[in-house]
Records
---
Amino acid sequence: QSYEGLDGKQYYQYCTAYPVGTMIAQTWNTDLAYTMGLNVGQEMEHYGISQWLAPGMNIHRNPLCGRNFEYYSEDPLVAGLIGGNEALGVQSNKGVGVTFKHFAGNDQENSRYSQNDVVSERAFREIYLKQFEIAVKMSNPMGMMSTYGIVNGVPSANDHDLQEDILRTEWGFNGLVTTDWWTKGEHYKETLAGNDIKMGTGYPERLMEALEKGLLTRKDLEI
């Protein structure tokens, strides 16, 4: 596919095919992860792409998870250190950044829209959040992507405790949070939870209805 770059030149977007995340993690080599990120960031800058929808940071809880190839490990420390170094490499290039995903608990493929993870707070923090915490504190990423799924009855994309209290207040994240693509959640709940961008399916009339009913304010939309 060809397109016109920021400099007016025509480019063909043939990017380097890097090894999948699992293979990078198997090296246990954080310098290698940084170098790969550095090279990815250079290509992003070259092609005029500002935000990479990666690294994938979820846990290999089940070997049948369809996204495991882009996730790193069943161990949150390994995943956090590899992902964090890869992000540092990408963001060492001017004007480009990463989007860690899927935050959080996206660890199976079946029923990704409706699956409900019933998990204790300790297990959630020590297994399913720890790699995100490590990588966020290491690299201050440009973005985070919330998930389709549900944790203890609350859709992750609607979870204010997760997006605001843990991610922003506890961990100091100051970047952008986007929903996953084609999420079916209510706009106003995702807005109040801390998502800055709604991707995919849109229902602007429902957003206006929520605004008219006072379920959210103009200020909520502007934050």
---
Amino acid sequence: PIRRLYTGTLWAEGPAWNGVGRYLVWSDAPNNVQMRWIEDDGRVTVFRSPAGNSNGHTFDYEGRQLSCEHGGRRVVRYETNGTVTAIADRFLGKRLNSPNDIVVHPDGGIWFTDPIYGIRGNYEGVKSESETKEAVYRVDPKSVQIEKITDEVGWPHGICFSPAYK
């Protein structure tokens, strides 16, 4: 059955399950926080604040959280020692729009969407001009180079792989 875990956010989005920690993380982008529901006792806490007006989240194969930040116009990884690593913030020298959704391929590649939602105003990010066409990108796990996969999809939103990882 569907069960409501929490109310009180302006806008809840980007849920990601951490199987090792047994918790669900999601964002309230307008309030600039990440929330966390802990399975063992059903408690909900503020996980990160400020959170870069983050939206989509996932975990890599080492258990590190990856988040798309509208406010920072970047993709970040939260390291196990507490530091934050910017994975992507520019393509060909131009700032990304507002990375939105993210997934990690078994080869370690990080795929993300980059629509303009977060730069259209100050509600879920910081109002700014777009420097790049909306697109879907992949970050190579070894070279950390960013490759544009496609810019032929308007307002790219949501990303996942098929069971065959295509």
---
Amino acid sequence: LFCGGRGTGKTTVARIFARDIGCNPEDIIEIDAASNRGIDEIRELREAVRTAPFSSPYKVYIVDEAHMLTKEAANALLKTLEEPPSHVVFILATTDPDKLPETIVSRCQKLVFEIPKKEILAERLLHVAEKEGKHLSKNAALLLADHGKGSYRDALGMLEQVLVTAEKEVTDD
């Protein structure tokens, strides 16, 4: 169970983890529980986990926004989480673990992705700007980090917009 604020890297780390355990892209299945939250979708998932991976030692199911599953869907998923086939790994990602049933949370290893401090986020923005061949002032990086509100994704998206229009140097102006 990967939990933490939005844009902190939960789904990205889930993808990296899947690749690190030897999964090829065709054996990494991402499910958006915000759109596929019902019991019918979970029943389909329970059937799908029985099939062997295409070309990897494992199939990894990344259930994003897991807190959006209906109560019935969460209960249907519970049995599969308790006794998954040996070739299946589940990674649940959520911004709100308190909305998940305790029966699911108690069966997961919980990893908390903390929201980065503004200074840490600014350092990452400075690093990315440097790799892109642009000079970003420290004040500009802090300003972007502040507007990112603890989200790497949002802050990097704003940096990208700024760098596309910027000359060689970006200041807080």
